[in-house]
Amino acid sequence: GAAHGGVSTWGDARAAALPDGSAHRADLASLYELTGCPPWPVYAPARLPWLRRAADGGPNSGARVQTLKEWIFHRFTGHDWIDFVTASTTGLLDIRRREWSSAALSAAGIQAGALPELVPSSAAAPLLGLIARGVGLPGPVPMIVGAADGPLVNLALGADAPGDISLSMGTTAAVRLVTAEPWIDPGGRTWCYRFHPDGFIVGGAVNNAGLLLDWARRVLYAGVSTQAGFQMLLGEDVRTVPPGADGVRMRPFLVAERDPAAGAPAASFEGVLERHGRPHLARAVVDAVAMSLAALGDILLQSGHASGHISIAGLPARYPAVGQIICDCLGRPVRLARLPDASAIGAALIGYEALGMDRPPVPAETRWLAPEPNAAAAYSRLRCDPLGAEPRQAIAR
């Protein structure tokens, strides 16, 4: 059938308009233990009812509900399938029983028949002949279901054993911990998804991450190329200013976070004086992103399930100065792994499994960083003052 509307992304927090204290919001909170998804507007039990009531319409009771990945898979193979990892990210899956939750479906206002069939990430179906011929592929070609992009980073980094932690940053950023059993944060600040048949992945995300750095690059380094701007921002200017940017601080909410507790988007600088220049603003932006991620890291490290090392991929691995700042904020060693696209590599590893082949080693340029004592102590103080604590608490909740 025809799509009912456009794609709704993780940045769509319009369902936060659900009134506080409403019966439906209370129902969402009760689902956290069952689905591993906090009562945030980005998950289907909140998003679908809001879309249904919105002026631009929404899925009716007879509509099918798919993520973009499943929609493409369905169009290319004729099979309406979804893997357990991606299903977890909808807020509709009972993560312990690995089946659609009747309570979550009721809150979302849909029936199980509106959702794809649950299958392993390695499930494969032949590409439809018309599609295969259209892209010039000969013979039957298997298309593999795969998984959500975030947990695929853990596979690519080799951080897929219980206790391992990954941190990745692209447009957004996330910190993820692999566990052998579900862990539900008493403070409701993290999610818990299925990772593989015998494991789970716990974590949190920051929308104001690479997106915020790109904004700083465009505003502070206008007139130079994208590559040159990032090099000046992340490879040069942040090195010239110490932690705390000589009193310049940034409230980093340029766009809405996934958790409505962060409030409406509003970014600002504070403490800017005549003696400050572009490098101070650059350092304040990077400090704000790093402290937000360290806040999530703290939650996972204090969960009682973290025993492995912390592996970092994405932008901080390409610009080691950023990786060092994150390391100093965390106050513990980290491993930087420079990979061209960690999520795509993780997907390829699932492909090897689906085809019955051994996973090959992942070649990556890696380096270990240790926290610099003076910088780590400075960030420890910064994260305890009012401006440093406010964004951290809001994002981590």
General description of the model:
The chain is an alpha+beta fold. It is 39% helix and 17% strand. The chain contains 16 helices and 15 strands. The strands form 5 sheets. It has a 7-stranded mixed β-sheet, sandwiched between helices. A two-stranded parallel ribbon has the order 1-4. A hairpin with a 2-residue loop joins strand 9 (191-196) and strand 10 (199-206). Helix 8 crosses helix 14 (342-354). The radius of gyration is 22 Å and the shape is globular. The two termini are 39 Å apart. The model is unreliable at 388-397 (pLDDT under 50).
Describe the secondary-structure layout.
Layout: H1 23-30, H2 32-35, H3 44-53, H4 68-77, E1 81-83, H5 84-88, E2 93-94, E3 99-100, H6 102-108, E4 117-119, E5 124-126, H7 129-134, E6 142-144, H8 149-157, E7 165-169, E8 173-179, E9 191-196, E10 199-206, H9 210-220, H10 226-236, E11 249-253, E12 266-270, H11 278-301, E13 310-314, H12 315-318, H13 320-330, E14 334-338, H14 342-354, E15 365-369, H15 373-382, H16 386-396
Parallel strand pairs: 1-4, 7-13, 13-14
Antiparallel strand pairs: 2-3, 5-6, 7-8, 8-10, 9-10, 11-12, 14-15
Helix pairs in contact: 3-6, 8-14, 9-10, 9-11, 11-13, 11-16, 13-15
